[in-house]
Automatic annotation (TrEMBL):
NCBIfam families from the UniProt entry: galliderm_ABC (TIGR03740)
Lineage, opening ranks: Bacteria, Bacillati, Bacillota, Clostridia, Lachnospirales
Any one GO MF annotation of this record: ATP hydrolysis activity
Family: Belongs to the ABC transporter superfamily.
Species whose genome carries this gene: Butyrivibrio fibrisolvens
PANTHER family to which the protein is assigned, alphabetical: ABC TRANSPORTER, ATP-BINDING PROTEIN
UniProt name for this protein: Lantibiotic ABC transporter ATP-binding protein
Keywords: ATP-binding, Nucleotide-binding, Transport
Superkingdom classification of source: Bacteria
Limits of the ABC transporter domain: 5-228
Length: 236
């Protein structure tokens, strides 16, 4: 099985605290990989290292078989925390600004608007969008460079059930287009419906990684991993 991304004993320390402790991820190509963990588990810090926002304290990141370098960021689209949108611009204008910045062809704008179902927003300013529409615009911005890897950090936060379902269908469609997705979340039911593989992080430690099997009790597995990691942390 070909890997899109691997991390080998990835660590991030802030002063004396290890936010990420020897995390070794194995993310196959063209799948949805659910990175699960309680709030503050180290998920966002891990993703920030993969996207170059933070520098690892130690360990390595292998992208598509080669050691990570800043050049790979051209192939990675990311939506971490809030979508980076200009609220006074329309969806199309936001994408036009981004296309100029990254040198993407204008033809991509219509493609990504169609992908995220924002074609008919016309002159409506992004500031007037619902949360779900803003999230979809954030994903459109991340897709503009035609990435091979798409990283979504808690993308369903604050969405209503319809927004969540639309986003779920969108995420599931990406592997068929040759895009590998890392989906970070603490909402187990969402990941259960989306992911092919999962990794469970708590207290900065990867306690479980594997294929998500039909009918698997994800909540039980999640709680077991979190409790075991906490017990180990207390012993340490």
């Amino acid at each position: 099985m070909e890997m899109m991304l691997k991390t080998n004993e990835l660590c991030k320390t802030f002063k004396d605290q290890k936010a990420v402790n020897k995390v070794s991820l194995n993310i196959p190509k063209c799948c949805v990989y659910g990175l699960l963990g309680p709030n503050g588990a180290g998920k966002s810090t891990t993703l920030k290292m993969i996207t170059g926002i933070m520098k690892p304290t130690s360990g390595e990141i292998i992208y598509d078989g080669k050691p990570w370098n800043r050049g790979v960021l051209e192939e990675i689209g990311a939506l971490i925390e809030n979508p980076p949108i200009y609220e006074n611009l329309t969806a199309r204008e936001n994408l036009e600004v981004r296309a100029i910045l990254i040198g993407a062809p204008k033809s991509r704008i219509d493609e990504v608007l169609k992908t995220v179902s924002l074609t008919n927003t016309g002159k409506k300013k992004a500031g007037q969008f619902s949360l779900g529409m803003k999230q979809r615009l954030g994903i459109a911005l991340a897709l503009l460079a035609d990435p091979k890897l798409l990283i979504l950090d808690e993308p369903t936060n604050g969405l209503d059930p319809i927004g969540i379902e639309e986003l779920r269908e969108l995420i599931r469609s990406f592997p068929k287009q040759g895009i590998t997705v890392i989906l970070s979340s603490h909402i187990l039911s969402e990941v259960q419906m989306c992911a092919d593989y999962i990794g469970i992080i708590s207290d900065g430690v990867l306690g479980y990684e594997g294929e998500l099997l039909p009918g698997q009790n994800l909540e039980e597995l999640f709680m077991d991993v979190v409790k075991k990691n906490r017990k180990l942390q207390n012993i340490a």
